[in-house]
Amino acid sequence: MAAFPRVWRAYLGVLQKYPLRTMACTTGTLMCAGDFIAQVAIEKRGFYRLQKYEVKRSLRFLGYGLILAGPIFGVWYAYLDKTFRVSKFGNWKMVFFDQCVFTPIYLLYFFTVMGALKGDSWAQIKVKIQKDYFDVLLTCYKIWPLAQACNFTFVPVQHRVLVTNVVAVGWNTYLAWKSASDDES
């Protein structure tokens, strides 16, 4: 346990020096972890099981988080903080814009990009969105408004992506399972 404070200080140093890169690496790593959990714990995949663990799928989540999601979240949270922090009810305005503006667009983006990375056609991506988008969005609204209210109220802006990612390990497990749910059929 004595190593944790050193690791935390090192993380903070890297975060301060390279904020977007650090957020990107953290997001990619934890999105990959969510997919790993989905495959092993929910889908019962494994290296020695009947259904093989899909390394390429986990790498898609790693790449998506590293190249796209991490930087997007970092810039978005900084924008929200700059725009709404000083206003009356600023935290609640951030939650509103995050959940009512960003989230619906982001989920469309997620399904589109992950489908394209998987090699799906535009028609397949459209069917996936029509089938799963509203279910995922409604599930999102059961978790994220409260999580983001706490995040925007108690967490400094430079740590919000990390806090979101920690909460999102479970969420990414769900997203990974949901985005792959038609692959077996």
Automatic annotation (TrEMBL):
Which cellular components does GO assign to this protein?
membrane
**So which domain of life are we looking at?**
Eukaryota
Where are the bilayer-spanning segments? 61-79, 94-117
Q: How does it sit in the membrane?
A: Multi-pass membrane protein
Q: What is its main location?
A: membrane
**Pfam families named in the record:** Mpv17_PMP22
* Family of this protein: Belongs to the peroxisomal membrane protein PXMP2/4 family.
- Which protein is depicted? Mitochondrial inner membrane protein Mpv17
Compartments where located = Membrane
Q: Which keywords appear in this protein's UniProt record, sorted alphabetically?
A: Membrane, Transmembrane, Transmembrane helix
